[in-house]
Amino acid sequence: MSSDADADGDERSDAFADLTTAEVRAAFERADYVAEEDIVTTVLLALRLDKPLLVEGAPGAGKTELAKVLADGFDSELIRLQCYEGLAAENTLYEWNYTKQLLAVQTGEHANTGTNPNADASANTDTNEADDGNDVTAETDERVGGSSGSVFSEEYLLERPLLRALSTEGETPPVLLIDEIDRADEELEALLLEVLSDFQVTIPEFGTVSARVPPIVVITSNRTRGLSDALKRRCLYLHVEPPSHEKEREIVDRKVPELDGAVAAEVCGATHRLRQEPLLKQPGVAETLDWARAVAALRAGGSGSDGGGDGEGDGSENGDRELTPAEIETTLGCLLKEVEDVTRVDSELLESLLESARDARTRARG
Questions:
Q1: Average pLDDT estimate for 329-354
Q2: Do residues 169 and 210 make contact, with C-beta atoms less than 8 angstroms apart?
Q3: Where are the domains positioned within the chain?
Q4: 201-225 pLDDT, tens digit each
Q5: Is 277 within 8 Å of 237 (Cβ atoms)?
Q6: What is the CA radius of gyration of the chain?
Q7: Mind listing the pLDDT tens digit for each residue in 271-296?
């Protein structure tokens, strides 16, 4: 880490200057992420322009996964800042190690005076006053050795996610995920402005820390509240739409390869039909994957059958048979997370889900 006192200047990363659409798509492929063309293009522009990426969409649409995929696809470190109400600056940027500072002050005083610690009452009083307020003064700083021995040096600085993302010294930029920013207070947005504008942060006692390799910044929001115009101006915007039936089927095939293809088609067909209902919480792609894994796990163990299998294995007698009403009813907890939504699934809706599943299976069989 370097401050403005010793930095050679703003060394912007050129790691993505010649990045192509094909390379971005290949990165997604390596991470088994099925990306629409608008996602590929927006990510390409964000990387080439060193712009943060603001990603919005329904819960479970794959916003957080996008940041993880970028880290995997470009072999980068993922640094995550999970937002919540009341998130304070010291949990996002940095804080000083007060215990270590005070210990250094006491040790420095004893070394400088060369006397017994009890010999200088006024020095001890100063130290106690600093302890009471968790504030080490400039006068005390000078007593422990000036600049090189300062208690406001990097040795005493505790990096939090934002500062850590700016302090990377390697050639590969880290991926900074600021997750669910809409859950945090508006004060956090103001705190982010300097970081997102110039990829730097000013520490009053230390100086300005500038990123030698700007991080790849992904900010996600579920739109539980509006974000400030100042924040949005600094970002490229991407809204993640729910995938089409075909895209979701491709996602399930990649992420849950142990599930038979025809059954995967049924899972996606039933889920798409369920999304047409006025639910309190619509199932996202994450829920579809959970359901697919649940069905695969039950069939692999010979469970979840209402007579369609012999309880032994998963082959053609069990693994690829049609979804049953019992399987859907007993695994609804993978898709629906509100009791009102669960009770909505009556016999009529269940029959409709089965019909949609059968239609999807027929199309998949071709």
A1: 94
A2: no
A3: 21-88+161-240, 94-156, 245-365
A4: 888 888 888 888 899 999 999 998 9
A5: no
A6: 28
A7: 999 999 999 999 999 999 999 999 99
Predicted confidence (pLDDT) per residue in 215-256, tens digit: 999 999 999 899 999 999 999 999 998 888 899 999 999 999
Q: How far is the C-alpha of 219 from the C-alpha of 232, rounded, in Å? A: 10
**Residue 53, helix vs strand vs coil:** strand
Amino acid sitting at position 238: L
Distance CA 94, CA 1 (A): 13
Return the bridge partners of 201, or none: 209
Residue with tokens 């603001």: 54
Provide the pLDDT for residue 335: 95
* CATH code for the part of the protein at 21-88+161-240: 3.40.50.300
Element (H, E) at 363: helix 347-365
For the beta sheet containing 216-221, the strands, ordered from the edge strand earlier in sequence to the opposite edge, are 78-82, 175-179, 216-221, 53-57, 236-240
Nearest Cα neighbor of 274 from 251, 257, 261, 291 is: 291
Instruction: Enumerate the H helices of 167-322 as residue ranges.
Output: 186-198, 229-233, 245-255, 261-274, 285-300
| Two tokens, residue 260 | 């038979």
